UniProtKB/TrEMBL annotation:
Domain of life of the native organism: Bacteria
Record field: transmembrane: none
UniProt-listed InterPro entries: Acyl-CoA_DH_C, Acyl-CoA_Oxase/DH_mid-dom, Acyl-CoA_Oxase/DH_mid-dom_sf, AcylCo_DH-like_C, AcylCoA_DH/ox_N, AcylCoA_DH/ox_N_sf, AcylCoA_DH/oxidase_NM_dom_sf, Mito_Isobutyryl-CoADH
Highest classification ranks of the organism: Bacteria, Pseudomonadati, Pseudomonadota, Alphaproteobacteria, Acetobacterales
Organism: Gluconacetobacter aggeris
Domain Acyl-CoA dehydrogenase C-terminal: start-end pairs: 250-370
A Pfam family of this chain: Acyl-CoA_dh_2
One of the record's GO molecular function terms: flavin adenine dinucleotide binding
Keywords in alphabetical order: Flavoprotein, Oxidoreductase
Protein name, per record: Acyl-CoA/acyl-ACP dehydrogenase
Boundaries of every Acyl-CoA oxidase/dehydrogenase middle domain copy: 130-220
Domain Acyl-CoA dehydrogenase/oxidase N-terminal: 26-92
Length: 386
Protein backbone atom coordinates (compact mmCIF):
# COMPACT_ATOMS: atom_id res chain seq x y z
CA UNK A 1 0.00 0.00 0.00
CA UNK A 2 1.17 3.55 -0.74
CA UNK A 3 1.70 5.87 2.19
CA UNK A 4 0.14 9.30 2.33
CA UNK A 5 2.10 12.12 0.67
CA UNK A 6 3.47 14.83 2.91
CA UNK A 7 0.82 17.34 1.77
CA UNK A 8 -1.94 15.12 3.16
CA UNK A 9 -0.26 13.16 5.93
CA UNK A 10 -1.23 15.59 8.70
CA UNK A 11 -4.80 16.15 7.56
CA UNK A 12 -8.08 14.28 7.96
CA UNK A 13 -9.67 16.98 5.81
CA UNK A 14 -8.27 19.15 2.99
CA UNK A 15 -5.77 21.81 4.00
CA UNK A 16 -8.25 24.68 3.93
CA UNK A 17 -5.65 27.20 5.09
CA UNK A 18 -3.46 26.34 2.10
CA UNK A 19 -6.42 26.74 -0.23
CA UNK A 20 -7.25 30.13 1.28
CA UNK A 21 -3.72 31.25 0.46
CA UNK A 22 -3.95 29.94 -3.10
CA UNK A 23 -7.31 31.39 -4.16
CA UNK A 24 -6.17 35.06 -4.16
CA UNK A 25 -3.12 33.97 -6.15
CA UNK A 26 -5.40 32.34 -8.73
CA UNK A 27 -7.54 35.49 -8.87
CA UNK A 28 -4.47 37.62 -9.55
CA UNK A 29 -3.53 35.40 -12.50
CA UNK A 30 -7.04 34.97 -13.92
CA UNK A 31 -7.16 38.00 -16.24
CA UNK A 32 -3.91 36.99 -17.95
CA UNK A 33 -5.13 33.46 -18.62
CA UNK A 34 -8.50 34.75 -19.78
CA UNK A 35 -6.75 36.91 -22.38
CA UNK A 36 -4.35 34.19 -23.56
CA UNK A 37 -6.77 31.28 -23.40
CA UNK A 38 -4.02 29.10 -21.94
CA UNK A 39 -4.61 26.64 -19.12
CA UNK A 40 -3.25 27.97 -15.81
CA UNK A 41 -0.65 25.25 -15.31
CA UNK A 42 0.88 27.12 -12.38
CA UNK A 43 -2.50 27.03 -10.59
CA UNK A 44 -2.67 23.27 -11.15
CA UNK A 45 0.91 22.85 -9.94
CA UNK A 46 0.08 24.79 -6.78
CA UNK A 47 -2.92 22.55 -6.16
CA UNK A 48 -0.86 19.42 -6.83
CA UNK A 49 1.82 20.50 -4.37
CA UNK A 50 -0.85 21.19 -1.72
CA UNK A 51 -2.33 17.71 -2.22
CA UNK A 52 -5.58 18.85 -3.83
CA UNK A 53 -5.44 16.88 -7.10
CA UNK A 54 -5.50 13.53 -5.28
CA UNK A 55 -8.28 14.20 -2.76
CA UNK A 56 -10.84 11.86 -4.34
CA UNK A 57 -8.48 8.87 -4.23
CA UNK A 58 -8.64 6.25 -1.46
CA UNK A 59 -6.41 6.99 1.53
CA UNK A 60 -4.31 3.93 0.67
CA UNK A 61 -3.30 5.69 -2.54
CA UNK A 62 -2.65 9.11 -1.07
CA UNK A 63 -6.12 10.65 -1.12
CA UNK A 64 -8.85 11.43 1.38
CA UNK A 65 -11.75 9.70 -0.40
CA UNK A 66 -13.69 12.98 -0.27
CA UNK A 67 -17.45 12.98 -0.73
CA UNK A 68 -19.80 15.39 -2.44
CA UNK A 69 -19.79 17.97 0.39
CA UNK A 70 -16.02 18.44 0.24
CA UNK A 71 -15.96 18.41 -3.56
CA UNK A 72 -18.50 21.24 -3.58
CA UNK A 73 -16.61 23.30 -1.03
CA UNK A 74 -13.23 22.95 -2.76
CA UNK A 75 -14.62 23.66 -6.23
CA UNK A 76 -16.64 26.66 -5.03
CA UNK A 77 -13.63 28.21 -3.32
CA UNK A 78 -11.33 27.70 -6.31
CA UNK A 79 -14.01 29.16 -8.61
CA UNK A 80 -13.90 32.44 -6.70
CA UNK A 81 -10.28 32.73 -7.81
CA UNK A 82 -10.31 31.15 -11.27
CA UNK A 83 -13.38 29.21 -12.46
CA UNK A 84 -11.49 27.67 -15.39
CA UNK A 85 -9.09 26.02 -12.95
CA UNK A 86 -12.06 25.02 -10.81
CA UNK A 87 -13.72 23.26 -13.75
CA UNK A 88 -10.60 21.23 -14.50
CA UNK A 89 -10.32 20.27 -10.83
CA UNK A 90 -14.01 19.40 -10.58
CA UNK A 91 -13.62 16.97 -13.48
CA UNK A 92 -10.58 15.49 -11.72
CA UNK A 93 -12.66 14.77 -8.63
CA UNK A 94 -15.73 13.51 -10.47
CA UNK A 95 -13.85 11.16 -12.77
CA UNK A 96 -11.29 9.80 -10.31
CA UNK A 97 -14.00 9.48 -7.67
CA UNK A 98 -16.23 7.58 -10.08
CA UNK A 99 -13.42 5.11 -10.75
CA UNK A 100 -12.98 4.63 -6.99
CA UNK A 101 -16.67 3.81 -6.57
CA UNK A 102 -17.02 1.59 -9.63
CA UNK A 103 -16.81 -2.18 -9.30
CA UNK A 104 -16.48 -2.56 -13.08
CA UNK A 105 -12.95 -1.24 -13.48
CA UNK A 106 -10.15 -3.85 -13.17
CA UNK A 107 -8.20 -3.51 -9.92
CA UNK A 108 -4.83 -3.31 -11.69
CA UNK A 109 -6.02 -0.45 -13.94
CA UNK A 110 -7.41 1.41 -10.93
CA UNK A 111 -4.09 1.07 -9.13
CA UNK A 112 -2.15 2.28 -12.16
CA UNK A 113 -4.39 5.32 -12.52
CA UNK A 114 -4.33 6.17 -8.81
CA UNK A 115 -0.53 5.94 -8.61
CA UNK A 116 -0.13 8.27 -11.59
CA UNK A 117 -2.45 10.84 -10.00
CA UNK A 118 -0.60 10.68 -6.71
CA UNK A 119 2.99 10.48 -7.90
CA UNK A 120 2.79 12.51 -11.12
CA UNK A 121 -0.10 14.85 -10.40
CA UNK A 122 -1.80 13.29 -13.44
CA UNK A 123 -5.11 14.81 -14.55
CA UNK A 124 -8.08 12.85 -15.86
CA UNK A 125 -11.34 13.78 -17.56
CA UNK A 126 -14.12 12.16 -19.54
CA UNK A 127 -14.08 12.71 -23.31
CA UNK A 128 -17.69 12.36 -24.41
CA UNK A 129 -19.09 15.10 -26.68
CA UNK A 130 -18.72 14.62 -30.45
CA UNK A 131 -19.18 16.92 -33.46
CA UNK A 132 -21.98 14.90 -35.05
CA UNK A 133 -23.87 13.72 -31.98
CA UNK A 134 -23.40 16.61 -29.58
CA UNK A 135 -23.83 15.83 -25.89
CA UNK A 136 -24.51 12.14 -25.15
CA UNK A 137 -26.86 13.17 -22.35
CA UNK A 138 -29.55 13.56 -25.02
CA UNK A 139 -29.17 10.01 -26.29
CA UNK A 140 -27.54 8.25 -29.21
CA UNK A 141 -24.42 6.19 -29.80
CA UNK A 142 -20.92 7.62 -30.15
CA UNK A 143 -19.15 7.74 -33.49
CA UNK A 144 -15.87 6.98 -31.72
CA UNK A 145 -15.11 3.29 -32.22
CA UNK A 146 -12.80 0.65 -30.84
CA UNK A 147 -11.95 -2.28 -33.11
CA UNK A 148 -9.65 -5.28 -32.98
CA UNK A 149 -7.30 -5.49 -35.94
CA UNK A 150 -6.26 -9.07 -35.28
CA UNK A 151 -3.44 -8.21 -32.91
CA UNK A 152 -4.52 -5.21 -30.84
CA UNK A 153 -7.42 -2.89 -30.06
CA UNK A 154 -7.51 0.52 -31.73
CA UNK A 155 -9.62 3.60 -31.05
CA UNK A 156 -10.59 6.26 -33.59
CA UNK A 157 -12.77 9.35 -33.25
CA UNK A 158 -13.03 13.01 -32.28
CA UNK A 159 -14.07 14.46 -28.92
CA UNK A 160 -14.96 18.14 -28.68
CA UNK A 161 -15.25 20.41 -25.61
CA UNK A 162 -12.61 18.31 -23.81
CA UNK A 163 -11.93 20.37 -20.68
CA UNK A 164 -8.28 20.40 -19.67
CA UNK A 165 -7.21 18.78 -22.96
CA UNK A 166 -3.52 19.71 -23.18
CA UNK A 167 -3.01 19.27 -19.42
CA UNK A 168 -4.62 15.81 -19.20
CA UNK A 169 -2.67 12.59 -18.75
CA UNK A 170 -5.73 10.33 -19.04
CA UNK A 171 -8.94 10.50 -21.05
CA UNK A 172 -11.99 8.33 -20.35
CA UNK A 173 -13.40 8.12 -23.88
CA UNK A 174 -17.02 7.21 -24.52
CA UNK A 175 -16.85 4.76 -27.42
CA UNK A 176 -18.50 1.74 -29.00
CA UNK A 177 -17.31 -1.47 -30.56
CA UNK A 178 -18.00 -2.18 -34.21
CA UNK A 179 -20.54 -4.71 -35.50
CA UNK A 180 -24.29 -5.32 -35.38
CA UNK A 181 -24.41 -5.67 -31.60
CA UNK A 182 -22.07 -2.95 -30.32
CA UNK A 183 -21.01 -2.54 -26.74
CA UNK A 184 -20.82 1.03 -25.46
CA UNK A 185 -18.93 2.58 -22.60
CA UNK A 186 -15.62 3.72 -21.24
CA UNK A 187 -12.17 3.28 -22.74
CA UNK A 188 -9.22 4.61 -20.74
CA UNK A 189 -6.76 6.34 -23.07
CA UNK A 190 -3.28 7.55 -22.06
CA UNK A 191 -3.17 10.82 -23.98
CA UNK A 192 0.55 10.57 -24.73
CA UNK A 193 0.06 7.56 -27.02
CA UNK A 194 1.00 7.78 -30.72
CA UNK A 195 -2.03 8.78 -32.78
CA UNK A 196 -3.53 11.12 -30.15
CA UNK A 197 -3.49 14.78 -31.09
CA UNK A 198 -5.21 17.92 -29.88
CA UNK A 199 -6.75 20.47 -32.20
CA UNK A 200 -7.06 23.91 -30.61
CA UNK A 201 -10.72 24.65 -31.21
CA UNK A 202 -11.85 26.35 -27.96
CA UNK A 203 -12.59 29.99 -28.81
CA UNK A 204 -15.48 30.75 -26.46
CA UNK A 205 -16.28 34.10 -24.85
CA UNK A 206 -16.16 32.67 -21.31
CA UNK A 207 -14.27 30.00 -19.34
CA UNK A 208 -11.52 30.58 -21.85
CA UNK A 209 -8.70 29.03 -19.80
CA UNK A 210 -10.29 25.59 -19.56
CA UNK A 211 -8.48 24.45 -22.72
CA UNK A 212 -11.62 22.61 -23.86
CA UNK A 213 -10.16 21.73 -27.25
CA UNK A 214 -10.82 18.78 -29.58
CA UNK A 215 -9.06 15.49 -28.84
CA UNK A 216 -8.54 13.33 -31.93
CA UNK A 217 -7.82 9.59 -31.89
CA UNK A 218 -6.30 8.28 -35.13
CA UNK A 219 -6.15 4.48 -34.96
CA UNK A 220 -4.59 4.62 -31.49
CA UNK A 221 -3.40 1.23 -30.18
CA UNK A 222 -4.96 0.52 -26.78
CA UNK A 223 -4.00 -2.29 -24.39
CA UNK A 224 -7.02 -4.52 -23.88
CA UNK A 225 -7.05 -3.86 -20.13
CA UNK A 226 -8.02 -0.24 -20.88
CA UNK A 227 -11.37 -1.30 -22.36
CA UNK A 228 -12.64 -0.90 -18.84
CA UNK A 229 -16.40 -0.67 -18.99
CA UNK A 230 -18.17 -1.67 -22.22
CA UNK A 231 -21.79 -2.83 -22.04
CA UNK A 232 -24.82 -3.28 -24.28
CA UNK A 233 -26.41 0.16 -24.88
CA UNK A 234 -29.37 -0.57 -22.60
CA UNK A 235 -27.18 -1.68 -19.67
CA UNK A 236 -25.79 1.59 -18.36
CA UNK A 237 -24.10 0.99 -14.99
CA UNK A 238 -25.62 2.49 -11.83
CA UNK A 239 -22.46 4.46 -11.07
CA UNK A 240 -23.07 6.53 -14.22
CA UNK A 241 -26.31 7.83 -12.66
CA UNK A 242 -24.53 8.95 -9.50
CA UNK A 243 -21.76 10.59 -11.55
CA UNK A 244 -24.33 12.57 -13.57
CA UNK A 245 -26.08 13.68 -10.37
CA UNK A 246 -22.89 14.77 -8.66
CA UNK A 247 -21.77 16.52 -11.86
CA UNK A 248 -24.95 18.60 -11.99
CA UNK A 249 -24.66 19.81 -8.39
CA UNK A 250 -20.90 20.46 -8.63
CA UNK A 251 -21.38 22.55 -11.78
CA UNK A 252 -24.03 24.60 -10.00
CA UNK A 253 -21.69 25.22 -7.06
CA UNK A 254 -18.89 26.29 -9.41
CA UNK A 255 -20.96 29.01 -11.07
CA UNK A 256 -22.35 30.06 -7.71
CA UNK A 257 -18.71 30.62 -6.75
CA UNK A 258 -18.27 32.90 -9.78
CA UNK A 259 -21.30 34.93 -8.70
CA UNK A 260 -19.94 35.25 -5.17
CA UNK A 261 -16.63 36.57 -6.52
CA UNK A 262 -18.58 39.12 -8.58
CA UNK A 263 -20.63 40.12 -5.55
CA UNK A 264 -17.53 40.62 -3.40
CA UNK A 265 -15.89 42.76 -6.09
CA UNK A 266 -19.03 44.88 -6.37
CA UNK A 267 -19.13 45.50 -2.62
CA UNK A 268 -15.53 46.73 -2.71
CA UNK A 269 -16.25 48.90 -5.75
CA UNK A 270 -19.26 50.52 -4.09
CA UNK A 271 -17.21 51.37 -1.02
CA UNK A 272 -14.28 52.73 -3.03
CA UNK A 273 -16.23 54.72 -5.63
CA UNK A 274 -17.09 58.16 -4.25
CA UNK A 275 -18.29 60.57 -6.99
CA UNK A 276 -17.36 64.18 -6.27
CA UNK A 277 -20.97 65.32 -6.67
CA UNK A 278 -22.10 62.82 -4.02
CA UNK A 279 -19.43 63.46 -1.42
CA UNK A 280 -19.73 59.87 -0.16
CA UNK A 281 -19.27 56.36 -1.46
CA UNK A 282 -21.87 54.64 -3.62
CA UNK A 283 -22.31 52.20 -0.75
CA UNK A 284 -24.27 54.89 1.10
CA UNK A 285 -27.01 55.09 -1.54
CA UNK A 286 -30.24 53.15 -0.79
CA UNK A 287 -30.55 51.86 -4.35
CA UNK A 288 -27.17 50.11 -4.14
CA UNK A 289 -27.96 48.77 -0.69
CA UNK A 290 -31.15 47.28 -2.15
CA UNK A 291 -29.14 45.88 -5.08
CA UNK A 292 -26.74 44.04 -2.77
CA UNK A 293 -29.75 42.73 -0.86
CA UNK A 294 -31.24 41.38 -4.10
CA UNK A 295 -27.97 39.69 -5.04
CA UNK A 296 -27.54 38.21 -1.57
CA UNK A 297 -31.09 36.86 -1.72
CA UNK A 298 -30.24 34.99 -4.92
CA UNK A 299 -27.05 33.61 -3.42
CA UNK A 300 -28.86 32.61 -0.21
CA UNK A 301 -31.33 30.68 -2.34
CA UNK A 302 -28.41 28.96 -4.03
CA UNK A 303 -26.95 27.95 -0.69
CA UNK A 304 -30.30 26.48 0.36
CA UNK A 305 -30.60 24.53 -2.90
CA UNK A 306 -27.09 23.12 -2.62
CA UNK A 307 -27.66 22.23 1.03
CA UNK A 308 -30.87 20.44 -0.01
CA UNK A 309 -28.93 18.33 -2.52
CA UNK A 310 -26.29 17.54 0.09
CA UNK A 311 -28.87 16.55 2.68
CA UNK A 312 -30.47 14.11 0.25
CA UNK A 313 -27.11 12.63 -0.71
CA UNK A 314 -25.95 12.24 2.87
CA UNK A 315 -29.24 10.63 3.91
CA UNK A 316 -28.65 7.91 1.32
CA UNK A 317 -31.37 9.10 -1.06
CA UNK A 318 -28.87 10.31 -3.67
CA UNK A 319 -29.63 13.45 -5.63
CA UNK A 320 -30.59 12.17 -9.07
CA UNK A 321 -34.24 13.27 -8.94
CA UNK A 322 -33.38 16.85 -7.94
CA UNK A 323 -29.86 17.31 -9.28
CA UNK A 324 -30.86 18.72 -12.66
CA UNK A 325 -33.24 21.23 -11.11
CA UNK A 326 -30.62 22.30 -8.56
CA UNK A 327 -28.06 22.88 -11.31
CA UNK A 328 -30.56 24.80 -13.44
CA UNK A 329 -31.82 27.03 -10.64
CA UNK A 330 -28.42 27.71 -9.10
CA UNK A 331 -26.82 28.66 -12.41
CA UNK A 332 -29.75 30.88 -13.41
CA UNK A 333 -29.59 32.62 -10.02
CA UNK A 334 -25.84 33.09 -10.43
CA UNK A 335 -26.32 34.60 -13.90
CA UNK A 336 -29.05 36.89 -12.59
CA UNK A 337 -26.86 38.03 -9.68
CA UNK A 338 -23.91 38.97 -11.89
CA UNK A 339 -26.23 40.54 -14.45
CA UNK A 340 -27.71 42.80 -11.78
CA UNK A 341 -24.22 43.94 -10.81
CA UNK A 342 -23.26 44.74 -14.40
CA UNK A 343 -26.50 46.60 -15.13
CA UNK A 344 -26.27 48.69 -11.97
CA UNK A 345 -22.83 50.22 -12.43
CA UNK A 346 -22.78 50.81 -16.20
CA UNK A 347 -19.49 51.07 -18.11
CA UNK A 348 -17.20 49.91 -15.26
CA UNK A 349 -19.11 46.62 -15.27
CA UNK A 350 -18.20 45.95 -18.90
CA UNK A 351 -14.61 47.19 -18.78
CA UNK A 352 -11.82 44.65 -19.15
CA UNK A 353 -10.00 46.68 -16.52
CA UNK A 354 -12.37 45.18 -13.95
CA UNK A 355 -13.00 41.49 -13.19
CA UNK A 356 -16.80 41.90 -13.24
CA UNK A 357 -16.78 41.79 -17.05
CA UNK A 358 -14.92 38.46 -16.95
CA UNK A 359 -17.20 37.09 -14.24
CA UNK A 360 -20.20 37.90 -16.44
CA UNK A 361 -18.76 36.09 -19.46
CA UNK A 362 -17.78 33.13 -17.31
CA UNK A 363 -21.08 32.77 -15.44
CA UNK A 364 -23.09 32.68 -18.69
CA UNK A 365 -21.30 29.43 -19.54
CA UNK A 366 -23.21 27.71 -16.74
CA UNK A 367 -26.17 27.28 -19.07
CA UNK A 368 -24.35 25.08 -21.57
CA UNK A 369 -23.29 22.37 -19.11
CA UNK A 370 -25.28 19.16 -18.89
CA UNK A 371 -28.09 19.08 -17.94
CA UNK A 372 -29.25 22.13 -19.85
CA UNK A 373 -32.35 23.95 -18.68
CA UNK A 374 -34.93 22.37 -20.98
CA UNK A 375 -33.61 18.90 -20.20
CA UNK A 376 -33.65 19.45 -16.43
CA UNK A 377 -37.18 20.87 -16.46
CA UNK A 378 -38.48 18.21 -18.82
CA UNK A 379 -37.04 15.41 -16.68
CA UNK A 380 -38.61 16.88 -13.55
CA UNK A 381 -41.95 17.31 -15.26
CA UNK A 382 -42.03 13.74 -16.54
CA UNK A 383 -41.16 12.44 -13.07
CA UNK A 384 -43.97 14.48 -11.52
CA UNK A 385 -46.50 13.30 -14.09
CA UNK A 386 -45.51 9.65 -13.75
Amino acid sequence: MDTLPAALAQHDTPDWAALERLVPRFAARAAEYDRSGDIALDNLADLRDAGFLALALPRAYGGLAIGLRTVLEVVSRIARGDPSTALIVSMQYLQSGAVVRSDRWPADVKAELFRSIRHEGALINALRVEPELGTPARGGLPATTVRHDGTTWRISGRKIFSTGSTALRWGVAWARTEGDAPRVGQVLVPLDLPGVRIEKSWHQMGMRATGSHTVIFEDVAIPERYLVNLNPPAAAPDDAVQLASWHAVVIGALYDGVARAARDWLVRFLHERAPSNLGASLATLPRFQTLIGEIDALLLTNRALIDHALAREESGEHVDSDAGLVKHLVTENAIAAVGKAVAAIGNPGLSQDNPLERHYRDVLCGRIHTPQGDSALGTAGRAALG
